[in-house]
Amino acid sequence: MQQLADQFKELDFKSETYKDAYSRINAIVIEGEQEAHENYITLAQLLPESHDELIRLSKMESRHKKGFEACGRNLQVTPDLQFAKEFFSGLHQNFQTAAADGKVVTCLLIQSLIIECFAIAAYNIYIPVADDFARKITEGVVKEEYSHLNFGEVWLKEHFTESKAELEQANRQNLPIVWRMLNQVEGDAHTMAMEKDALVEDFMIQYGEALSNIGFTTRDIMRLSAYGLIA
Ligand code: Y39
Ligand code: FE
Ligand code: FE
Ligand code: FE
């Protein structure tokens, strides 16, 4: 009943409650897009044969960032970028370490699978409850996120046999971090009419599909997904 009541409650985008939640969620998205931009530049260096395509993806990410900055300005919200940096620090650190070790499979799992699936889930859940300005921006962005996820899927599928062990290990290390991140923003997401259950469900569908496209069996996917639960 509470969910039904929430669903029909008008969202007041100008209220202090909404804007306070937005200052953190909007910052997370801006910081996420900035880090995604940097991550694709790093990946372009690690994968010379896909250099130009990855630079193209990195440029899309900076356009996404600009779009979401405009969404914040539109609501007269100042993004809490310090909060957002801390929010991403676990995945950021793991990506940096993997890149320094030349572990491209781990880098792709973190950015092109986990972070892209997180973005797709969040944007899909946000679109129906966004203000008109942000909805149009987010609709354009989410289409491109699917192409980023696709890059990771295609590369990892082509290198599945030799990547499998590293993918399992990177999944075990990073999936629990995503669960902790979701728990951290559950309250703010709720204020914006985005329910955690819906975010988790959408994330697991995207991530499970991606693992299946890469070559994992249903049995593997169940096992890999279970690491989210122990966060
Ligand atoms: O590839 C991308 O563009 C991803 C970086 C952007 C991350 C978006 C993270 C969204 C999480 C929002 C959490 C809301 C509950
Ligand atoms: Fe509620
Ligand atoms: Fe993006
Ligand atoms: Fe992306």
Bound molecules: (1S,2S)-2-nonylcyclopropanecarboxylic acid, fe (iii) ion
Query: What structural class do the secondary elements suggest?
Result: mainly alpha
The largest sheet, given as strand count, sense and whether it forms a barrel, is: none
Whole-angstrom Rg: 17 Å
Strand content: under 5%
Key features of this structure:
mainly alpha, globular, binds fe (iii) ion, binds (1S,2S)-2-nonylcyclopropanecarboxylic acid
SSE topology sketch:
Layout: H1 2-8, H2 16-46, H3 51-74, H4 81-100, H5 104-126, H6 132-158, H7 160-191, H8 196-214, H9 218-225
Helix pairs in contact: 2-3, 2-4, 2-5, 2-7, 3-6, 4-5, 4-7, 5-6, 5-7, 5-8, 6-8, 7-8, 8-9
Bound molecules: (1S,2S)-2-nonylcyclopropanecarboxylic acid and fe (iii) ion (FE) (3 copies).
One fe (iii) ion binds next to helix 2, helix 3 and helix 6.
Can you put this structure into words, describing what you see?
With 231 residues, the chain is mostly helical. The chain is globular. The chain has 9 helices and no strands. Residues 2, 6, 190 line the site of one fe (iii) ion.
Summarize the structure.
By secondary structure, the chain is an all-alpha fold.
